[in-house]
Each structure stands twice: as structure tokens, then as C-alpha cells.
């Protein structure tokens, strides 16, 4: 099962440098592990200001910290990152 959703503007993930507000979420299951991707509409780092990049860095570290063998959180910056994450071995 795959879920792809546009997140409401009120959805945010708290970080030490301010709330990170992703625009999209994708959740899917592969080999018994749920993979969750939170995606900002434009993740090309040249288009983001320093504060937004800091929020994304904090969010990425937090997602690494809370990921488990059953649920993995991912940061993707482009479509190819999503494909690479889903085709990588466990």
C-alpha cells in the first residue's frame, strides 16, 4: 500500500530552529518496513534560505534518531532520492 498526500499548512514538525513544514508525505511498505517520506515542495538547497536549510538538517537528524527496524523516515531532495531509497537493500 502506498499513500501520497498533500499536507495541510497547519502540519509542522518542531525543530530547535523553528518548525519544519513539509508540503507532501509519502508512506509505503517494503519488506515489512514502513517507509515515510516528508517532502518540501522545493528541496533544491540553492532555493532555500539558511534557516530553512537548518530546519531540514534538524528534521533529518531527528528522523534518523526515531527510525526503527519497523519504521524508517527519509529525507529526499529529488525524485531520484526517493527511487534510490526504495530500491536500496535493507
Shape: globular
Through-space gap between termini:
18 Å
Strand content: 25-35%
Mean pLDDT, rounded to whole units? 84
Largest β sheet strand count, sense and barrel closure: 4 strands, mixed
Residue runs with pLDDT of under 50 for 5 or more positions: none
Discrete helix count: 2
Helix content range: 25-40%
The strand line-up of the biggest sheet is: 1-2-3-4
* Series of H and E elements: EEEHEH
The total count of strands amounts to: 4
Helix-strand makeup class: alpha+beta
- Radius of gyration (CA) equals 13 Å
Describe this protein's structure.
- A 4-stranded mixed sheet has the order 1-2-3-4.
- α1 (50-66) links the parallel β3 and β4 (71-74).
- It has helices at residues 50-66, 79-87; strands spanning 2-6, 24-30, 33-39, 71-74.
- The protein starts with a strand and ends with a helix.
- It has 90 residues and is α+β, with helices and mostly antiparallel strands.
- The protein contains 2 helices and 4 strands.
- The protein is globular, with a radius of gyration of 13 Å.
